[in-house]
Each structure stands twice: as C-alpha cells, then as structure tokens.
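Usage

Read records sequentially. Each one opens with the input sequence:
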Amino acid sequence: MNMLKTLGAYVKEFKKDSIITPICMAVEVVMEMIIPLLMARIVDQGITAGNMAVIYQTGGWMVLCAAISLSAGFGGGYFGARASTGFARNLREAMYNNIQTFSFANIDKFSTAGLVTRLTTDVTNVQNAYQMLLRIAIRAPFSLITAMVLSFVISPRIATIFLGVVIALGVIIFAIAARTMKTFRRIFNTYDALNESVQENVSAIRVVKANVREDYEVKKFKKASGLVHDLFSKAEKVLAINSPAMQTAVYGTILAVSYIGARMIVAGSLSTGNLMSLLTYCMNILMSLMMVSMVFVMITMSIASAERIAEVLNEKSTITNPEHPVETVKDGSIVFDHVTFRYNPESPQPVLNDVSLNIRSGETVGILGGTGSAKSTLVSLIPRLYDVSVGSVSVGGLDVRQYDMEAIRNQVAVVLQKNELFSGTIYDNLRWGNEHASDAECQEACRLACADEFIERFPDGYNTWIEQGGNNVSGGQKQRLCLARALLKNPKILILDDSTSAVDTATDAKIRKAFREDIPDTTKLIIAQRISSVEDADRIIIMDEGRVVAFDTPENLLAHNRIYQEIYEEQKSGGGDFDEKRGED
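and closes with the structure output:
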C-alpha cells in the first residue's frame, strides 16, 4: 500500500485523464454489447419475418452504436496515453530530482547502473502497466461481466457453461501470475548487472583496448546477458501455458455452445438470432479473459519495477539543512574535535578514529598516508559530504551541520584525482565553478592552475570542445582544468585530493607557487603521495589506519618523525612514493 501511495502522488496532475479513460472504455463496452442484441433482432424479426423496415431501422441503430464505440475507443486511447506518459514523465523527474538531494551515503546504497535501470526500463514497465490498467483492466472485466449478465438473460443454461470456463481459467491465470512474480523481481535486479557491464566497458573502452581485455569483457557481458535470458526464458515457459489454455477454452466453449444451442433451436427453446448473440458474447467473454491474463502478466512485471522506483522516491537524504541554517562562512579555519566516522553505522571498526586537528585560516596543510589510511574520508567531512559518527567538524568557528549545505559547499572547493569534465567548451566546463564568471576570470583561474599554457595551443583556445568525460584531453590537462574550475568558486577552503598526480613536478611546483602568492588567504589542504607536493606546506598531517600519527611542520617532521624521514629519503633518492616502503614510527 505504501508503494501505491508513493507512486499515486505523481498521477494527480493527470487525474482528469485517468478518470475520462475508463469512462470511455465503459461506453465502448456498452455499445459493443448492444450490437449483438441488435443483430439478433435483425435475424429474428427482420430476416426471418421478411420485415425490411426492422432491418433498416435496427441497422441504423447498429451503425450509431458502432460510431459511438469507435469514438469512445479513440478517446480512451488518447486520454490513456496522456495519463500514462505524463505519469512516467513525473516519475522520472521526481526520481532524478530526489537523486540530486542524495548525500554520498545515499548514493553508496545504489549503483549507477541500478539508478539508470530504474529511470528507464522500470519506469517504462510501470507506464505500460498503468495504461493497461486504465484501458484493458477496465474494459476487460466490464466487458466480461456485461456479456455474462446478458448471456444469462438470453439462456441461463448456456451461460452456466461460460461461468464454469471463466472460473477454471481464472484459477489458471492466478497460478501463473503467482509463479512468475518472483522471477520478474530477479530479472530487473539482474538488469542492473547487465547495465553496469555495458557502462563500465563503454566508459573505460580505452583501458580495455590498451590491456587487450576485449575477450574478458565480452565474456562478462555474455554472462550477465545470459542470466537475463535464462530468467526471462524461465518466466516465459510458465506464461506459455496461458495461450494454449485460452485457445482450448475458446474453441471448446464454441463447440459446446454450438452443439447445445443447435439442439435448443430444434427444440424451440432458443432462436437463431439469440444463438448468434450467445456466440458473440462467448467470444467477448473469452477475449476479455485473455486480456485479463495479459494485464496480470504486465502487472506482475510492473510490481517489481514499481517497488524499485518507490525505493528511490522514498529514500531520504541522510544529510539535511538545520532548521535555521547559517548562510555565511566567516573564514577557512578548520577544527576536528575527537572525530570518529563509520560509513556503515553497524561496522565495528571505524574508518576515522578519534581525530582531532586545528587548522588555521589561510594555512597550507599537506596530508600524507598510505592507501586506505582514510585521507579522502577525512577531507570529505569538511564540506559535509558525510556526517561524522562521533565528534564534530567546524569551519569558520561553527559546526558544519549548522550551515546551509549549499553555502558551506560553495566555500569548500574539492578537486579529486579523477574529476569529471562534461561535454561542452572549456569555458562551459570552467563555469561549473561559477556560472557568472567572465572570460577574464576564467582565464585568470587557468593561469593559476597552469592550464593556460596548453589551452592557448588549441586552435579554438577556450572555445575548444571537450568530449564527454574529457576524453580528448590528457590526464594532466584534465586535472588542471578541474583545478581552475574549483578556483573560480573563490573558496575559503581548497582541497586537492591527489589532484596533481598526473602533472609533472615542474608544473606542480608552478601551481603551488601560484597558490602561495595569489590566494594566500585560502586554506589549502593537499593530499599527495609525492613529498615534493607538500614539502613547502606550513604543516603536514601523516595518517595511518584512520588515525593522525603526526601533525607538524616539514622541518620538525624531518628532524623527529621516522615515517616522514624514510619517505623523504626514499623519494629524494628516487626510491618511490609513500606506498612502496614504510618504516615504523
């Protein structure tokens, strides 16, 4: 019921269309049911009696009923399509808008492929099911009941045969629906794996080709595709029982009605016209049953899809604005006060464990640590991408949970190692940082990020078109463009998460020099694997297994910290980066 309530909220805009459609279907059915009665009158009172007036008069009524039925059918189709497509549009928009509100914790619950499947395949299934509910689910039962009632009026004896067939087929239909329900749920979950395989392969096609892994990717896709095929085959084998059962019922009933009706005509208890009407009603009843079975199949498929859609719509962000949020961030000072953090609240081992730090506004702080030491997790708490489990993180003297989320995130710019560029010009991509930035401001940000030197070599300069994902620029160029984009926000805090890893050391030094001279008031946190990237920082944090094991100036660390000494000696002598060797403090 909760699922129906959730989805039903997105039909309200098309409530009028959703009401008109079944009315049109009902009118169409009534007109269709009247026509066999008029045919019986033509046969019994017109043709048999040789009364042409009755034939013409009744024929005129038949034409009128057919015209009304045609118009009602057209109206049902038109308004049903409006309601179902509008419903689907609203569901997609609502899901997409809700996804935009998700915190990183929410996003971690859903795979990208799973969200794409919900926005496409699942919504299409629900759309088709809703249209069938408005049209066929109204038309078929109404037609079946009306035809059954009129059959009993004409001949209770023959109508009893119809009733018995309807009950038997109803039991078969319900049994088929019950068996296929679980299979269809599994099918749509399997679609997620199939879409994920396609997404990974297409987005990383250069990596696949460079490592000659085409055969592996083909096998992985075939496995996912094969599982979908097997599950659909399993469901279709059960559904295949539906058609022969219906055909057997249709032809068996026609034979029985023809035989019994002929004997009744001979006995004088049934007219020829009424037998024709009964045969027409027989076909209407059995065709309505077939339509009902189609509706059951579609509803069975759509219930699984509807549940997956409702799951996204009902997902509430784990991070919300406070009741009276603060809109202004005073400065770039950062304080971690005994912070403990878990991605999963049930996890016994925290990712960050009792971290306390005090970073002054405008300070440049390097962060070193091995893979898995929670460096990225640490900085992700500053713009409130996640909320702490224990303790607090403050920026500008206030707990980040007191700020308006948009306000704090506008003042904390994060540049990741694998940032994304979007299809559009370089100017378009830069203005993701500030949509109102002038050309001069964009060019200044690129100068600070040392991106101007390669942009000016492009024939179209800043109007050069960037392909989706930045596939037509190098890794270092992409990182510098992302740096410039972050700088356009004029943030109070700039976080560089290994974001110069693809840049040569000379360019890295230029970037650091520009930051030091041109944005001295901005607090800069630099996660790096190279000592050279952080050796001129004011202070350096060294992390290990979610703990801060040292936080001091480079000079003091070099004099007193064994870990930093070994890293320094190894890298200065060409021995590698932080992860290759590490001594114990």
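Summary fields computed downstream for this record:
- Residues 170 and 289 are 8 Å apart (CA to CA).
- Residues 578-585 have pLDDT under 50 and may be disordered.
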